[in-house]
Amino acid sequence: MRESFVAQRHKTVKSSLMEQVAELSKGMDDLIDLSIGDPDFTTPAPILEAGYKDALAGYTHYSPGKGYPDVIQAVVDTYKNDLGIAIGPENVIIVASGDYASFQAAFATIDPGDEVLIPDPSFMCYQYHVKYSGGVPVMVPTGPEDGWRFKAKEAEKYVTEKTKGIYICTPNNPTGACLHPEDLQEIYELAEKYDLLIYSDEIYTAFSYDVPFQSMLSVPGAAKRTVVINSMSKNYVATGARLGWVIAPKEIIGAIAMEGLHMVYSAPSISQRMARFALTEGKPYMAPIMAEFKERMFKTAERINKIPHLHVPSPPPGTFYLFVDVRETGLSDLEFALKVLKDAHVALVPGSDFGDCGAGFVRICATVGLPKLMEAMDRIEALGL
Ligand SMILES: Cc1ncc(COP(=O)(O)O)c(C=O)c1O
Fold this sequence. Notes:
The protein is an alpha/beta fold. It has two domains: 8-43 and 284-382, Aspartate Aminotransferase, domain 1 (Alpha-Beta Complex), CATH 3.90.1150; 45-282, 3-Layer(aba) Sandwich (Aspartate Aminotransferase, domain 2), CATH 3.40.640. The protein is built from twelve helices and twelve strands. Helix 7 (181-194) links the parallel strand 5 and strand 6 (197-201). The protein binds pyridoxal-5'-phosphate (PLP).
C-alpha cells in the first residue's frame, strides 16, 4: 500500500498558529476569544427573513451557474450607488464565499510556475490559493513604519518575468491598513508596466476608518486587469451564509463560471436571496453594528496603548482587527500569545501566522463587546509583560 493517498500539493500546507491557539484554549471556561475573524453579531433578522421568505417561495434549487440575475444586479447597483463604479452584469459572478472567490479567481488565471505577489502580512489563504493553482506565492514585505501600506515600489523589487499577478487587500487583514488613492494608483501603474492581473480583496469595505474606502476599480483603466473579491461575511456579518462574488473582465468571469460548473454548480440559493436583500435594503440594519465595531476598535486601541510595552495605531486605520506591537516585551509573538492564553485565558493570533513580517505583532479581533474587550486588556496588563 502507498504511504499516503494525499496529494503532494497538500504537503506544502502547514497548520496555522491560529489552529494551535484554538487547540490549547479548549476547556477554558473563562476564555475571552479574540482570535477568530467572525463577527459576534447574528446577521440582522430582516436579512435572514428575506432568505427564508424566498426559500418558502421556491428558491431552494440550484440557481443559474453565475447566480440569480437580480443578485448580480444588486452587486452592479451597489458598486454604482456606493462607489460610483460602472460595471455590467457580465462582469459579475456569485460564488460560495469570499474564500472561494479568491480560490476560484486564482485557479481561473494562474498557470503552473506563475508568480503572484502577496503583501506580507496578509490573509493566510491567498498563498494557498496560488499554490493550489500551481503558482508560486511571493511575499512582499510591508511594515509598521509605512502604516503597513502595500507599496508598489517595494512590490516592484519582487517582479520577475514569471510574475503574473498581485494581491491587494484594503483594509487589510490582519494589519487594518487602508490603501490610499495614491497607493492604488501606483499599484495600477506597476500592473500596467509589467502586465499583471490585480486580485483586489474588498471584503472589509465597511470598516475603512483612515480614508474612505476606494475600490481598485475606481482607478481609471484598472478594470481590464482587476479581479475583485467580495462577500457577505464581514460587511453584513454573515460568515455562515458562505456567499461572495467576483467582479472581473468577462473572459475571467467565463473561466470562473466554467470551473464553478464542475465544482459547486451554483452558490447557495438561500444565501443569494439574503444577499439580494442585504445589498439593496440592508444598510440601515447594518449601521448600528458598524457603529459598535468602530467604538470597540477606537476604545480598545486607546486602552492597549496604556499597557506598558504594547503599541497599536490609535485611531486604528480599518477592519475589526488590532495589530499590536509586542516587541518591547522581549517575547516573540508566539511566546506572547501562548503566555496570554495560558496565564490570562485570552486567545489572540501570533502575527507571524500571516507572514514573516508579522513577527513581533499579535492580532486582536474586536469580535466581543466592549466590556469583554476591556476585561481582556485588564487581564493582559495584569501579567506585567
Ligand atoms: C481578507 C479576507 N479575505 C477573505 C476572507 C474570506 O471570507 P469569507 O470566505 O468568509 O467570505 C477573509 C476571512 O476572514 C478575509 O479576512
